[in-house]
Task: inverse folding
């Protein structure tokens, strides 16, 4: 029976892989008008950005949900993407859109990532003390700080020069149509580094499904690994946010679809599945935006709409099974 | 031998365990008993390093537990707490196989699989090893978790109220298995028990706690008598001999 499950999972992963490849090919080649040599490289960059974002978010969310032992949370709950908005708004507000921090995209990207990761690490440093405070205190505090940062951003945006505001707004909406192509390479490097580092944690995460006490019993340095995962998830989320902007619900949808679709506790398989679903959602979604809705809407609107519905469905399902 | 030396734990300003020192002998079943809030579970959690102590130390043979690597400790001492909520779907076999994690790090060898088979057989779970945990009754689930701890193959097995929510039949079943583990495989079992009669009938030694302090520590026969129990529970409990067992008839005591 175990082997059957394994075989079925392999088949499912292959199906996802095929769909992902088909949607990538479709996105790359469908209805190219005008100069191929102009349009094609642009599409390649976009597909790369979507793939990186998709994988980063899926990866971060699955790990985050295991260490928080909660399947309706995403790492954005601790306010990392609010921190992104803060960084961008502060730069635009105090330095203006002509400043080097805006014009030099590497600098902008680097500043944003460093700020987000420092924010996350400070939060963990102060609030994550193993048996003293439970992890939910950290999440609550993160949520409140995130809201505070959001209000701060709002305040600055109200009093900022309207022209600056327009160009700022462009930065703050998730967009795959104008990806910063220079950033794709460095994001890919960060993602690969995270994977290399995280590979060692996968099996430990499998054991952490059994809960803190059982995991410690089985020789896991639980609190140390939770901290590592939180930092890893922050880096991944920061990277994807800096690359395309905040995509709130995506991680929630793809992780839960992966749990339902693949019956396994193994993180290596779950993360692979969630990543593929994520790529399908982003590339397929963007395909729809371009060719069906003809740019009348954006992918983040679609994702948040579907994500919102799915979230409500999950809440209803959880409350039913809790009874 | 596990030696507990001056362990203290505060929750806020309230001491839950206060300066407890006791030696746990190898190859025996030792029961921790005492009223609610006596600190039994907290003490067990500190011994098994689920919880940090504020002061004091725990020695395994002669090594300070805190100085051991988690993975090495996991090969010597196993702990099972009473609430085990799992939000993924696992089969019994998959759960039991996790018991081999300290040795195999998730890559099961033939030897690991043999140990898993053995542990399943020991708990009478071989026939239903492919059932999912959420399809099981409370007793079966408890057996599955104990089976995982057996697969872990440690010299010391610590259990926090393993009889909680079990009916008489399953309770007796589990206590008999623990007895077998000690008598046949030479394990050392430390167990937190609420039902004093199970402690009386199945354990070799009893450690009694009250308000976070050690009140009694000795052979079962030295503790299970009206005078000693009065000190622990503030109740006058008649003790009757029944087929070689001492039974506490506490139902109408005051």
Result:
């Amino acid at each position: 029976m175990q082997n059957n499950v394994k075989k079925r999972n392999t088949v499912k992963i292959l199906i996802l892989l095929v769909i992902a490849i088909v949607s990538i090919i479709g996105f790359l080649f469908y209805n190219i008008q005008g100069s191929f040599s102009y349009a094609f490289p642009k599409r390649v960059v976009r597909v790369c950005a979507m793939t990186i974002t998709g994988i980063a978010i899926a990866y971060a969310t699955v790990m985050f949900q295991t260490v928080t032992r909660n399947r309706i949370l995403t790492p954005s709950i601790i306010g990392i993407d609010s921190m992104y908005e803060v960084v961008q708004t502060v730069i635009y507000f105090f330095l203006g859109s002509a400043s080097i921090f805006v014009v030099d995209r590497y600098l902008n990207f680097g500043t944003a990532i460093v700020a987000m990761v420092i924010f996350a690490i400070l939060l963990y440093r102060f609030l994550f003390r193993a048996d003293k405070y439970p992890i939910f205190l950290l999440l609550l505090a993160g949520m409140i700080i995130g809201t505070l940062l959001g209000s701060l951003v709002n305040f600055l945006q109200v009093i900022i020069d309207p022209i600056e505001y327009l160009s700022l707004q462009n930065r703050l909406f998730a967009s795959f149509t104008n990806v910063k192509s220079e950033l794709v390479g460095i994001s890919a490097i960060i993602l690969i580094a995270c994977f290399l580092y995280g590979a060692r944690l996968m099996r430990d995460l499998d054991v952490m499904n059994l809960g803190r006490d059982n995991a410690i019993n089985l020789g896991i340095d639980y609190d140390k690994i939770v901290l590592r995962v939180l930092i890893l998830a922050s880096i991944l989320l920061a990277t994807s946010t800096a690359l395309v902007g905040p995509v709130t619900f995506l991680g929630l949808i793809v992780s839960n679809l992966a749990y339902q679709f693949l019956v396994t506790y193994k993180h290596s398989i779950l993360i692979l599945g969630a990543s593929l679903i994520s790529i399908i959602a982003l590339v397929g979604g963007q395909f729809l935006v371009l060719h069906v809705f003809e740019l009348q809407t954006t992918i983040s609107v679609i994702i948040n709409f579907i994500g919102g519905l799915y979230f409500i469905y999950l809440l209803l399902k959880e409350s039913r099974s809790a009874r | 031998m596990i030696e507990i030396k001056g362990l203290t734990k505060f929750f806020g300003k309230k001491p839950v365990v206060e300066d407890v020192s006791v030696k746990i002998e190898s190859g025996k079943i030792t029961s921790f008993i005492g009223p609610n809030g006596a600190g039994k579970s907290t003490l067990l959690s500190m011994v098994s390093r689920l919880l940090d102590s504020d002061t004091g130390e725990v020695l395994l043979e002669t090594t300070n537990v805190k100085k051991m690597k988690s993975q090495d400790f996991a090969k010597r001492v196993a702990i099972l707490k009473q609430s085990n909520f799992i939000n993924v779907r696992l089969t019994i076999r998959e759960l039991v196989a996790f018991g081999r994690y300290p040795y195999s790090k998730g890559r099961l060898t033939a030897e690991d699989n043999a140990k898993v088979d053995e542990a399943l057989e020991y708990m009478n779970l071989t026939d239903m090893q492919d059932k999912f945990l959420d399809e099981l009754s409370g007793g079966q689930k408890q057996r599955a978790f104990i089976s995982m701890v057996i697969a872990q193959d440690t010299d010391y097995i610590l259990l926090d109220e393993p009889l909680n929510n079990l009916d008489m039949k399953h309770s007796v079943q589990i206590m008999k298995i623990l007895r077998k583990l000690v008598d046949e495989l030479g394990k050392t079992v430390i167990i937190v028990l609420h039902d004093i009669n199970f402690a009386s009938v199945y354990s070799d030694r009893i450690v009694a706690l009250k308000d976070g302090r050690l009140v009694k520590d000795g052979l079962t026969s030295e503790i299970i008598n009206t005078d000693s129990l009065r000190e622990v529970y503030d109740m006058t409990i008649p003790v009757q001999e029944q087929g070689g067992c001492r039974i506490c008839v506490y139902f109408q005591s005051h």
Remarks:
- The longest helix of chain A spans residues 36-68.
- Chain A has a mean pLDDT of 84.
